[in-house]
Please model this.
Amino acid sequence: MNSRLRQITKVTESLKHDAAGLGFQHVGIAPAVSPPGYHPLLEWIASGHAADMDWITHRQDAYRHPDGVLPGTRSVVVAAMNYHNQNPQPETARIARYAWGSEDYHTLLRQRLKKLATSLRTTWPEERTRAVVDTAPLLERDFARLAGIGWVGKNTMLISREIGSWFFLGAILTTAELTYDQPFDGDYCGTCTKCLQACPTDAFPEPHVLDSNRCISYLTIERRDKSIDENLRNGIGNWLFGCDICQDVCPWNRFAPNHSDRAFEPREDLIAPNLLQLLALDDDLFQRKFGDTPLKRTGRHAIVRNAAIVAGNQRCTDAIPQLTTLLKDQSEIVREAARWAISQIDPQ
Ligand code: B12
Ligand code: SF4
Ligand code: SF4
Model:
């Protein structure tokens, strides 16, 4: 083995070894190629399924190849971090499990990915690396499949045979060459269609395709400055932020292990948020309570709008005084949701 090849093997081994110590359950490496999901992505955008997530549509060309994120990329290291916590969801207002911890996962994963890249940087200081979580134009699930971590389920989640789908993905793009894993071969959904049937807003026009316009996760997190279509409000049920239904019903999650990471220790007020307190949030209080959590992305107005919709769906008569105050709120989306909620609770 020549010395360059020995270095490649050694760095690949250290990356995999260090990943476990940093709390990643899986790590795999794919060559930088144009991902097979690129054309499905273009079709998805053309069908309007990206809704108004312009940060995806405006950068559609950059998804063609990891070069669009880091010119000269040769390897894509993909890592998965389990955030599963088996606490049951409350009956009142629900927040998706990924957001129960007190830290924003983007910051946390990016910091750990940077640490993970240490062996790469020290061995080859001349090579460039970039850690990405979510926001770069990279099809993370497609690359996770190419890196051998799992398959894309009918619910569009990347599923691992070992840990199910309750995990975050992150990637390190590097101009360095590494030893590549085999792509994950196969699809273990079989004839199951539980996720497609369980979705309360019918967000799957077909298996493996999600229409964001109908997905509660999009509606409650990403649709921040607009009202939510009235026809979809009942389907939102008691989801205040995100939605876990198509993962909760998945048989591959039945035995999903719990995380053992202090960073994902859940906060009581996120596992079981108090609806009346949420309806009373002003900008300052929102910032103080949720400024360092994933909820900050959505902002006060959309969270209060969502809380009003949940109160309406639950016919929560105790919320009437708060909702009446919100009829004069500074935000139009809040005023409108409060009006709607009152009409649901008391049609008179
Ligand atoms: C935009 C986005 C959303 C949107 C759109 C989701 C979607 N399904 O496209 C909304 C806001 C709705 C959303 C919701 C959620 N999201 Co999100 N989201 C993203 C983001 C930023 C981009 C996804 C994207 O590019 N979508 C466009 C579609 C076309 O791409 P895709 O979903 O990757 O689909 C691929 C496959 O379906 C495949 N494909 C297409 N057709 C076919 C056909 C067949 C037969 C096959 C096999 C494959 C296949 O090709 C596609 C392209 O690669 C990624 C991070 C990233 N940069 O990748 C996180 C990400 C996918 N989200 C994540 C999470 C956790 C969630 C939620 C669970 C959060 C919650 N609890 O509320 C939900 C889950 C909803 C769901 N069922 O997907 C995780 C998923 C981890 C995992 N195990 O898969 C990611 C990777 C973020 C992260 N860094 O951890 N999300
Ligand atoms: S996250 Fe919820 S709303 Fe979105 S597709 Fe899954 S079940 Fe449907
Ligand atoms: S619920 Fe069934 S069809 Fe859906 S992702 Fe899980 S195994 Fe696949």
